[in-house]
Write a structure and sequence with these properties.
This protein has 190 residues and is mainly β. 3% of the residues lie in helices and 40% in strands. The protein contains 1 helix and 18 strands. The chain has one helix spanning 49-54, and strands at residues 5-7, 14-16, 24-27, 34-38, 43-45, 57-59, 61-62, 95-102, 109-112, 116-120, 126-127, 138-144, 147-152, 159-161, 164-166, 168-170, 176-179, 182-189. The strands form 4 sheets. Strands 9-8-18-17-14-15 form a 6-stranded antiparallel sheet, with no helix packed on it. Strands 11-10-12-13-16 form a 5-stranded mixed sheet, with no helix packed on it. It has a 4-stranded mixed sheet with strand order 5-4-3-6, with no helix packed on it. The longest helix has 6 residues, at 49-54. The chain is elongated. The N and C termini lie far apart (37 Å). Bound molecules: zinc ion. Zinc ion (ZN) binds at residues 8, 10-11, 13, 28, 30-31, 33. Residues 8, 10-11, 13, 28, 30-31, 33 line the site of zinc ion.
């Protein structure tokens, strides 16, 4: 079997597939996006719920320096995401709740039902009353059950997950998102 190099559908970085017979879930070593590998077509696709629940999960092998952390280049923006998220329904089996625990909006609870949710000070799905929050500050992308991401939309003050600044991060639940003076708790129920 020759080395099979594939491209992540989310961050577009190339990585090596682990050797395994049949279909499996493979995580991008850079951004942790979960794909399903279909040997018949030799392609990666976004897993369905059934595939996520039944297939073996394997990690992709990085082609670049392992110390390279996933980082969104400056010229990459949300418009270059490989998916048209508006056309993907949010996975029905996942409940994503964002609870504002600090800031002027403290106490507000948002039940996310869309695959793409924007958060900011103006013209967003979730509008925060916080002058340190950019107009369009961050997006939450729910692509499949195991593919829930937060992305910085080139905001002025950045986003912090559990105290660490990130440009993009996979969400597993229980994280605290800090944007401006606002803190939001992530609750994911599967
Ligand atoms: Zn990736």
């Amino acid at each position: 079997m020759t080395a099979n190099i594939v491209k992540c559908l989310f961050c577009n970085k190339e990585f090596l597939l682990p050797e395994f017979k049949g279909s499996f879930i493979v995580h991008c070593p850079y951004c942790e996006f979960s794909h399903v590998y279909l040997p018949e077509d030799n392609t990666l696709s976004v897993p369905t719920q059934i595939e996520e629940d039944t297939l073996t999960s394997l990690d992709g092998i990085p082609l670049q320096n392992e110390n390279d952390e996933f980082d969104l280049d400056n010229d990459q923006t949300i418009s270059q995401t490989s998916f048209n998220l508006q056309s993907i329904p949010a996975p029905a089996s996942v409940t994503l709740i964002l609870e504002v625990i600090k800031g002027r909006d403290r106490g507000k609870v948002f039940n996310i039902k869309k695959s793409l949710t924007t958060i900011g000070r103006k013209d967003c799905d979730i509008v925060l009353d916080d002058s340190l929050v950019s107009r369009k500050h961050t997006s939450i992308e729910m692509i499949s059950k195991d593919n829930i991401f937060i992305r910085d939309l080139a905001s002025r003050n950045g986003i912090y997950i559990n105290g660490k600044q990130v440009t993009m991060k996979k969400l597993y639940g229980d994280e605290i998102i800090k944007i401006g003076n606002t803190e939001i708790k992530v609750i994911i129920e599967k």
